Amino acid sequence: MNKFFYLLTVLFTMNAAAQIKYPVTERKVVADEYFGTKVEDPYRWLEDDNAADTKAWVKEQNKVTQAYLSSIPFRDKIKSRLEQLWNYPKYGAPFKKGDYYYFYKNDGLQNQAVLYRVKKLSDEPEVFIDPNKLSSEGIAALGSLSFSKSGKLLAYSVSTAGSDWSEIFIMDAETKQLLSDKILWTKFGGASWKGEEGFYYSGYEKPDENSKLSKKNEFQKVFYHKIGTPQSDDKIIYEDKTNPLRYFGAGLTEDERFLILSISQGTSGDEIWYRDLKDKNQHDLRLLVKGFDTESSVIENDGNHLLVRTNYNAPNYRVVLIDPKNPARNNWKTIIAEKKEALQGVGTGGGNLFASYLKDASSKIVQYNFKGKAVREIKLPGIGSAGGFGAEAKDKEFFYTFSSFNKPPTIYRYDIASGKSTVYRNSDVKMNTAGLVTEQVFFTSKDGTKVPIFLTYKKGLKKDGNNPVLLYGYGGFNIAMTPGFSVSNAFFAEQGGIYAVVNLRGGSEYGEAWHKAGMLLKKQNVFDDFIGAAEYMIKEKYTNKNKIAIRGGSNGGLLVGAAMTQRPDLFKVAIPQVGVLDMLRYQKFTVGWGWVTEYGSSDSAKHFPYLYGYSPYHNLKKGVSYPATLVTTGDHDDRVVPAHSFKYAARLQEYNSGSNPVLIRVETNAGHGAGKPTGKVIDEAADIWAFTMYNLGMDFKD
To answer: How far apart are CA 103 and CA 464, in angstroms?
Structure first.
């Protein structure tokens, strides 16, 4: 882009922004007192997403937003290019159940991937479940799949319009006929079969219709459902009438001997209980791992003992063998010792353990036997993410997937005995991914901590300080940001931008210590890391402050909101997506209470001042020029309720003194992100990239 065109674009953008007439958002006198501090909340009324005035406000905001986006000269070109890039067959790795191999496939632009099956891998695939036929709008999505051990029966969940609420259906896998059984009001989990007689699942009581997407979810229970009976007859296996704010998850070991119950008070820490179903003298659940101060999960049983992944006395995690009859921690036997790399998970298959580590946020896979002896490290193609290491005990092979920012997914067939990986299927992406480069750099954060960034861009990039950058991060809940391919993000690199992913504290990239360094009263470290990444890229001449866009979703939306309120001068564009933006009231909606272990709570005198100090909604200031901002959310988001985005956008429009636009995009029949139809995904991506590129002074390159 020449200088004249750039200046013309900037002037046009400023004029367009100056001409925006935002809907009038009524301020109402509402205030709360927290430990002697009065906090105003004038947009509290927007929390009622069912109210007529809220719906009218959303409609008017969307009208303004779409008018702005449609005026961007190259928005349609971006959408057309994204449709071209998206339109290639996308396959999931096959998995074996009973006599069949199953796999997902999206032909290209189908709203939902279709589940296929074959008896032999060379056979013509047979459609098994096509979720596109469940909704004319493509808003019904498959969730969990759980086959009975024989593979004859399948329990699968379906969610609609992006909601976390799901329904479980039962199918005769051989005939593909649905049984009469149907389970309603489940969240976050599927079915765990006991033979073919029935299964365990977690569920809630039927919620009120008007508040089902916003009311706090309480008193989850574990049920047993017997096939052929109504849900009303389901037996309660576990409930806690004294602690309404807990999660319960039940599962069985592969041989169906042990019933495992995981109990958590939030997103961190869990207590493990068990029942030996072969022990005729045991009729109750008994404690295996006590307390909520550590993370533990049962991998599998080895005869009478249980293999458990835990971070007790091992912040990078280890694998221990526990005798259920003598479960005290001093009796635990270490099978796989803690290493310098963080152990993310352990799969089983063919009588082996497959340990998935992260080495500087990139996958490293090691195969062990059940006694903890290393068999081999599985050679991977390079820096990237590998997943799918698991099968049944009788299996001799399985399929795994490898991808990176510049490498579309490749599916490999793995022979367990020999350790040989062979390419099973490549991706046929319609772009020159070989022309993209991914490098990993490290910078020093505010407190001296070394933090990695993955940078993806076109070959030949010049470090002249003028490259547009999209800085992405998450930084929380023990979730790692690992390399993975996205045609949408690759498109930005194709257009001459740098797609930068920061491995912030709060994630699991370097184990539990890394997680704890970015949670509770140390959350500011996450924001400092993100801000530090932007400053590093300016210092190293990758870019300048007028060329940086920041983006993140959910907890990453909180990240963007906090970063732009703390350093509005540092970023040109901000995209907080489905973000947690009101840190004083997040715990009052749906499953927000579960995040108190991560954030703390405004109900605590200890935590309130800290939360109030960085809460994006509360730290917006009058008379500040904020970055060009596009807030995005979905009207069916019952994970992070849209009230966060509504209130934040309203206050940002009120306070912003500069010429940058402040818009909110509310998707209808969409939730937190999972299960979103391809058509909606592309529309949203086109809008976000158009807004981002336009406000960074970029042009579309054919």
So the answer is: 46
Per-residue pLDDT at 12? 44
Burial of 43 per CB tally in 10 Å (0-12, 13-18, 19+)? buried
The stretch 636-653 carries a mean pLDDT of: 94
Closest CA to 60 of 85, 91, 86, 25: 25
Q: Which long-range contacts (C-beta less than 8 Å, at least 24 apart) are formed by 201-208?
A: 201/168, 201/225, 201/250, 202/247, 202/248, 202/249, 202/250
**666-678, pLDDT tens digit by residue?**
998 877 778 889 9
Q: Assign residue 641 a region (left: φ > 0; alpha: ψ between -120 and 50; beta: otherwise).
A: beta
Query: Looking at this protein, which amino acid is placed at residue 387?
Result: G
Name the active-site residue from 166, 356, 403, 554: 554
Choose among 263, 337, 334: nearest CA to 294: 263
Give pLDDT, residue 10. 44
Residue 357 CA to residue 349 CA, distance in Å, equals: 17
Q: What angle do CA 94, 151, 156 make, to 5 degrees?
A: 75
The reported pLDDT for the residue numbered 309 is 98
Give the pLDDT of residue 16. 52
Mean pLDDT within 96-103: 97
Measured CA to CA, the distance from residue 20 to residue 134 in angstroms comes to: 40
194-199 CB contacts, 8 Å cutoff, 24+ apart: 194/224, 194/252, 194/256, 194/277, 195/148, 195/149, 195/256, 196/148, 196/150, 196/152, 196/153, 196/227, 197/226, 197/227, 198/224, 198/225, 198/226, 198/227, 199/146, 199/155, 199/224, 199/225
Position 214 confidence tier, pLDDT thresholds 50, 70, 90: confident
> Tokens standing for 583?
């840190």
The two three-digit tokens of residue 464, written as one number: 């002249």
The question of whether 554 is a catalytic residue gets the answer: yes
Percent of the chain with pLDDT over 70: 97
Backbone angles phi, psi at 71, to 5 degrees: -85, -10
Cβ atoms 125, 105 nearer than 8 A = yes
pLDDT in tens, 49-67: 889 999 999 999 999 999 9
In the block, tokens 């929380």 appear at 476
Check pLDDT > 90 for residue 534. yes
Place of tokens 């491995």: 503
What was the pLDDT predicted at 211? 84
- As a whole number, mean pLDDT of residues 296-308 equals 98
CB atoms within 10 A of CB 73: 12
User: Residue written as tokens 């963080």?
Assistant: 342
Could you give the CA distance from residue 264 to residue 184 in angstroms, rounded to a whole number? 22
- Its pTM stands at 0.94
Give 416's contacts (C-beta < 8 A, 6+ positions apart): 349, 350, 352, 367, 391, 395, 396, 397, 398
Which contiguous run of DSSP H or E holds residue 611? helix 608-614
**Is pLDDT at 8 greater than 80 in this prediction?**
no
- The residues pairing with 158 across neighbouring beta strands, listed in sequence order, are 142, 167
Distance between CA atoms of residues 108 and 92, nearest Å: 13
Average pLDDT, the chain: 95
Q: By the 8 A CB rule, do 125 and 116 touch?
A: yes
CA distance 307 to 354: 13
At 193-202, the pLDDT tens digits run 999 999 999 9
pLDDT higher than threshold 70 for residue 471: yes
How far apart (Å, rounded) are the C-alpha atoms in residues 341 and 513? 12
Q: First CA to last CA across the chain, in angstroms?
A: 13
User: Is 666 in contact with 58 (CB distance < 8 Å)?
Assistant: yes
- 641 three-class SS: coil
Query: Among residues 418, 456, 462, which one has the least CA distance to residue 435?
Result: 456
